[in-house]
């Protein structure tokens, strides 16, 4: 079972339009609403693969009630922690060429008691979890050290932790030695305090994060592929993608694929790449099912193209 923790979940509404014109009245050609937040997306991808997952998250207001219902409809056990504020609603506008414009709300402010209640909800379920995936930004009211505390408590209970966050939250948590951290290229550059121009520079940055405490680094490099750097070495994975429809949740799908495949080594990296490649070819934040995966399109290697120049993010 994969337990996910999403301290700032959302309802994600996606509208597909022919073109975005500022100041105009636009009609959507398609729209959808999905349960959102990075940890929630990991749970959705795990559930889509037919595996058990439990989502721990604060829920408030009618938006939180809808989010819980949507999760249950997907076969995900929602371990909701009641909070006074309303769950946020995020808006994505998708254009046919793959351009995505996002409007993310800040979300409710959590009290000290509510923040502790989320940690307690994790504690009561930690023994049945193969992995705990802690994902996303922290809501207002939570200090950057909140994830560090969660990692420390989970490790004391014998659990393995995958952490997908950035900025001060990531920096503070590294001292507690999370088993896997999953930055994208921008977050990796932010963590080491310098821009990354090549795949080789990304490898060096991942090695620095390991030196700061991360036991393994799974880094998404967008269209360039993914890196895995752990105690056994560095590995690189790519996949052929015919058309990008939406990159919302692609990194979360990758993490789900990685953990579902064991969470270590080249085989797990290949699963991560396959899940990410499938996700970007689906609408909105839809998560791939096994039928969407194409393992034959994935190539993983320890012969990393260090001089390859990283593409600008789409």
UniProtKB/TrEMBL annotation:
<keyword id="KW-0808">Transferase</keyword>
<keyword id="KW-0067">ATP-binding</keyword>
<dbReference type="InterPro" id="IPR022463">
    <property type="entry name" value="1-PFruKinase"/>
</dbReference>
<dbReference type="GO" id="GO:0016052">
    <property type="term" value="P:carbohydrate catabolic process"/>
</dbReference>
<comment type="similarity">
    <text>Belongs to the carbohydrate kinase PfkB family.</text>
</comment>
<dbReference type="InterPro" id="IPR011611">
    <property type="entry name" value="PfkB_dom"/>
</dbReference>
<protein>
    <submittedName>
        <fullName>1-phosphofructokinase</fullName>
    </submittedName>
</protein>
<keyword id="KW-0418">Kinase</keyword>
<keyword id="KW-0547">Nucleotide-binding</keyword>
<dbReference type="GO" id="GO:0005829">
    <property type="term" value="C:cytosol"/>
</dbReference>
<feature type="domain" description="Carbohydrate kinase PfkB">
    <location>
        <begin position="23"/>
        <end position="290"/>
    </location>
</feature>
<dbReference type="InterPro" id="IPR017583">
    <property type="entry name" value="Tagatose/fructose_Pkinase"/>
</dbReference>
<dbReference type="GO" id="GO:0008662">
    <property type="term" value="F:1-phosphofructokinase activity"/>
</dbReference>
<dbReference type="InterPro" id="IPR029056">
    <property type="entry name" value="Ribokinase-like"/>
</dbReference>
<dbReference type="Pfam" id="PF00294">
    <property type="entry name" value="PfkB"/>
</dbReference>
<dbReference type="GO" id="GO:0005524">
    <property type="term" value="F:ATP binding"/>
</dbReference>
<dbReference type="GO" id="GO:0044281">
    <property type="term" value="P:small molecule metabolic process"/>
</dbReference>
């Amino acid at each position: 079972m994969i337990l996910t923790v999403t301290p700032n979940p959302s309802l994600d509404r996606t509208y597909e339009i022919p073109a975005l014109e500022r100041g105009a009245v636009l009609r959507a050609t398609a729209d959808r609403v999905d349960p959102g937040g990075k940890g929630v997306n990991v749970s959705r991808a795990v559930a889509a693969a037919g595996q058990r997952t439990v989502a721990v998250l604060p829920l408030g207001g009618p938006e939180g009630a809808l989010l819980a219902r949507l999760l249950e409809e997907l076969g995900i056990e929602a371990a909701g922690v009641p909070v006074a504020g309303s769950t946020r609603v995020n808006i994505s506008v998708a254009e046919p060429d793959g351009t995505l414009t996002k409007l993310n709300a800040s979300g409710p402010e959590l009290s000290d008691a509510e923040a502790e209640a989320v940690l307690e909800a994790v504690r009561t379920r930690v023994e049945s979890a193969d992995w705990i995936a802690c994902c996303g930004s922290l809501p207002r009211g939570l200090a950057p050290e909140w994830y560090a505390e969660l990692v420390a408590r989970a490790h004391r209970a014998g659990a393995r932790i995958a952490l997908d966050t950035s900025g001060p939250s990531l920096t503070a948590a590294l001292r507690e030695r999370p088993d896997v951290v999953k930055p994208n290229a921008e977050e990796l550059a932010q963590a080491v305090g310098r821009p990354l121009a090549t795949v080789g520079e990304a490898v060096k940055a991942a090695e620095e994060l390991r030196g700061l405490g991360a036991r393994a680094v799974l880094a998404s490099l967008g269209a360039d592929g993914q890196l895995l750097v752990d105690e056994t070495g560095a590995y690189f994975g790519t996949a052929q993608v015919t058309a990008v429809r939406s990159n919302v949740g692609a990194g979360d799908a990758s993490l789900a694929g990685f953990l579902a495949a064991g969470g270590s080594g080249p085989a797990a990296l290949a699963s991560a790449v396959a899940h990410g490649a499938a996700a970007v070819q689906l609408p909105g934040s839809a998560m791939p099912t096994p039928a969407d995966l194409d393992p034959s399109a994935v190539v993983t290697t320890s012969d990393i193209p260090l001089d390859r120049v990283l593409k600008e993010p789409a």
